[in-house]
Write a structure and sequence with these properties.
- By secondary structure, the protein is an alpha/beta fold.
- It has one domain (about 1-155, about 160-175): Alpha/Beta hydrolase fold, catalytic domain (Rossmann fold, 3-Layer(aba) Sandwich), CATH 3.40.50.1820.
- Helices cover about 40% and strands about 20% of the residues.
- It has 8 helices and 6 strands.
- The protein has a 6-stranded mixed beta sheet with strand order 1-2-4-3-5-6.
- The longest helix has 15 residues, at about 1-15.
């Protein structure tokens, strides 16, 4: 709840400073369209709304794009085409077998953007969505123009050595051969 309040406050500040204008009647008239996309053998649910440059909204852990940004959708969709995916096992996207990882969620999001033929999008990421936004910018810079992130864990303070190792093991696929370790050099 605290994160949603912060995002609402940031949108209000932008309105008050004149950085953002809202035509409320037009915003309320814009419907949100919901879609499924086939991504890596599973279905991924995403919302689409508005027109203009694309703004991707990445939700916090255990939430959905629809809920995490419910107070910003009207304002943001006035000048942007909003794409708000629900990550695996969250929102309307069904769970898949196997562990949930930031790496797989970031790759799912990159694949979704590519399948929608999107490049150089602006991304707003909250909490886990902010982590995904940073990963997308690092691993797929061709897809990302600008980032706004909030509530991101940037240091592992408070985690035990076992928890840190578990995160490392889940995020980094260990190469089994030299070719896997040095792709494109074989």
């Amino acid at each position: 709840m605290r994160g949603a309040s912060i995002l609402a406050l940031l949108a209000l500040l932008a309105l008050l400073l004149g950085w953002l204008e809202i035509d409320v009647a037009h915003a309320l008239a814009q419907p949100t369209r919901w879609h499924w996309a086939a991504i890596h053998g599973h279905r991924m649910y995403y919302a689409e709304r508005g027109s203009g440059p694309t703004l991707v909204l990445l939700h916090g852990g255990g939430d959905s794009g629809e809920h995490s940004f419910e107070r910003q959708l009207d304002a943001f969709s006035q000048q942007h085409r909003i794409i708000a995916p629900d990550q695996v096992g969250q929102g309307h996207t069904p769970d898949v077998t196997g562990p949930l990882s930031y790496t797989s969620m970031a790759q799912d999001t990159a694949t979704l953007l590519t399948s929608l033929k999107l490049k150089r999008v602006d991304i707003v990421g909250f909490s886990d969505g902010g982590i995904l936004a940073l990963m997308l910018a690092i691993r797929h810079p061709e897809l990302v123009r600008r980032l706004v992130i909030s509530g991101v864990n940037v240091t592992p303070e408070g985690l035990t050595p076992e928890q840190l190792q578990g995160l490392r093991d889940a995020q980094i696929a260990k190469p089994r051969t030299v070719d896997e370790n040095l792709p494109g050099c074989g």
